[in-house]
Amino acid sequence: MSQIGFFAIASALVGVSSISSAGDLFAIRDGGRLNLLDSSTGSRSLIGNTGVQLASSLDMGRDGMLYTHSRPNGVLSPASLYQIDPKNADSTFIAELSADIEFEGGLTIRDDGMAYLVGGRAIGSLFESAIFLIDLSTGAATELGVLDIGDINGLTLRSDGMLVAWSQFMPGPFTIDPGTMETRILFEGLGDIFNIDTTGGMDSAEGEQAYLLVGADNTLISLDMYSGEMSYMHEYSVGEQITGIALAVENCPADLTGEGDLNFLDVSAFLVAFGNQESAADFTDEGDFNFLDVSAFLNAFGSGCP
């Protein structure tokens, strides 16, 4: 098929929106094991061992891959960034982050592929948390600000652009303005209600409803990030503390630009990749570039994004 003919077909398909949908939860444990948690039934299954020791966060990018950072063991030094295949738990080292942290933290990925990372550090007898903006492709980190709050272990994004976090040293979940570092308590008494002194991760669906996995018993809690309303869901006995969770999000293979919409730019990106015989255009994974790849792309484009 000529590029002109392909363009004529594909151009009629532009304008389909991409809407992420939440499924089950991926959970990473301190020793690097990756589990799949069923938020409806409370069951769990082991996917595999990532090999990432002291994994401290988890989130899923628009590319359908998981990302985590591993913390230094009580020493102020750069953290490391990894990509994880959710199908088999295979991990790939990306970079040593230009972000010095000492304790746990959290990671949440924006729609543009950049990520916020928070990590704790000790300054004498005091604790603080630094927030960084991370380029997931290179590991480059820009420090945005510092909070005088220690041991933040859960971080996610609300639909209005505010960050929502949890720390055992705060009376409840709180918002963080990434521009000013101003914080505000959403709901007080989480520790009192569930007898929680540690936390294992946080992620959100569509930026409104969040899941917190907290405490030594790995208790799953649902949180409305606007009203602060919370409800108990399940406990997961996995033998060790879970340190990060990520909602399973269906990715969109035809969204080659990663912008969240299907339009002419994705068609153009496919044409360029196809003409250059780049892997992004090998939709059949056969190593060849032919009509079958064009057909597979058209089908994916016509189906829209979940």
Can you describe this structure?
With 306 residues, this protein is mainly beta. It has 2 domains: 3-16 and 252-303, no CATH class; 21-249, 6 Propeller (Neuraminidase), CATH 2.120.10. Helix content is 12%, strand content 43%. The chain has helices at 3-10, 190-194, 264-275, 291-303, and strands at residues 16-17, 22-29, 33-37, 44-49, 59-60, 66-70, 77-84, 91-101, 103-109, 114-123, 126-135, 141-147, 152-157, 163-167, 174-176, 183-185, 199-205, 209-214, 219-224, 230-235, 242-249, 261-262. The strands form 6 sheets. Strands 4-3-2-21 form a 4-stranded antiparallel sheet, with no helix packed on it. A 4-stranded antiparallel sheet has the order 5-6-7-8, with no helix packed on it. The longest helix is centred in the last third of the chain and has 13 residues, at 291-303.
Q: What is the overall number of helices?
A: 4
Number of strands: 22
The major β-sheet equals:
4 strands, antiparallel
Envelope shape: globular
List SSEs in N-to-C order: HEEEEEEEEEEEEEEEEHEEEEEEHH
Classified in CATH, the superfamily of the largest domain is TolB, C-terminal domain
